[in-house]
Amino acid sequence: MTEQENTEIQPSTRIQELSDKVAIENQKIQLLKSELSKIIVGQQYMVDRLLIALLCNGHILLEGVPGLAKTLAVKTLADALNVGFNRIQFTPDLLPADITGTQLFDQKTGGFSVRKGPIFSNFILADEINRAPAKVQSALLEAMQERQITIGDETFALSEPFMVLATMNPIDQEGTYPLPEAQVDRFMLKVVLDYPTLEEERQILRFNVSQEGFPKVDKILEGSSILDFRNLVKEIYLDEKIEKYILDLVFATRNPTKVGLSHLEPMISFGCSPRATIGLAMAAKAHAFIQNRAFVIPEDVRSVAVDVMRHRIGLSYEAEAENLTSKDIIQKIIGRIQVP
């Protein structure tokens, strides 16, 4: 067998072996999704995005009106995985120490002791994150990026798995503080939620007014299983053609004229950062895994592109004047870039 023939056989053999592993582990993910559906009515899109962020060791920003089961979803996921969960309500009077913790003086010993804040958990729900000033928002940055918290001169590692799920209310604008681009970029996905359908809301109504109430969530997996899933997701095969497709999508947001979309040039003040490239590749791999595939196809990339890129594109005044959203721009780019 020649070296060239051996090179051609290896990827297909590796994909077949990986497919067997994915098929086994995917059953656990489907069991987890089934357990979540006992509590969360509808919002399947949000559940899938939560799982993608979790599988990629990323964070997620949810935008939607109150009452769309954002808190319930992450609490149910934490229960099903038997991991810790803390909810932090962001308000204008919140202090960084209210999140990370602080040092307390002990009069008996004459020294300082550390009281850890609510950030020391596995799943953190930062509710209405844009209601707190930038100083408080920035308290999350070290936790989200380095997975550690510094209190005084001590640094503490956070438990794994660790995920920040932040929510924003798109209706209220008074008393809010827009998130800086540097912090928004730390969120792997931004998901915009919509209202449930009529049938879904009927089921929600019946759940809440019945004597039985909501069913109890069983502990399906341990948090350590997520770490195994993450390692497997990294192994998902990403072809060079798919890599080029991802790069073309990201670079088109920075220079749309090069792909024949010159009319979008004045609409974009800045394009996606390199984190978008990484996030797009990882999210596509996780999407393929959830779909029980050991390799990424273009549809995986297109499925997650809007959620990965929408918060990483800066819109100009011209775009706002024409009511053009970042989602509109991404969809135009997806429609223009040639699919491998």
Describe what this molecule looks like in 3D.
By secondary structure, the protein is an alpha/beta fold. The chain folds into two domains: 14-225, P-loop containing nucleotide triphosphate hydrolases (Rossmann fold); 236-336, Magnesium chelatase subunit I, C-Terminal domain (Helicase, Ruva Protein, domain 3, Orthogonal Bundle). 48% of the residues lie in helices and 14% in strands. It has helices spanning 3-37, 44-55, 70-81, 96-100, 134-137, 141-146, 181-184, 198-209, 223-235, 240-254, 274-290, 298-309, 317-321, 326-336; strands at residues 60-63, 85-89, 101-106, 111-116, 123-127, 148-151, 154-157, 163-168, 189-192, 268-270, 314-315. A five-stranded parallel β-sheet has the order 2-5-8-1-9. A two-stranded antiparallel sheet has the order 3-4. Strands 6-7 form a two-stranded antiparallel sheet. The longest helix has 35 residues, at 3-37. Residues 1-9 have low confidence and may be disordered.
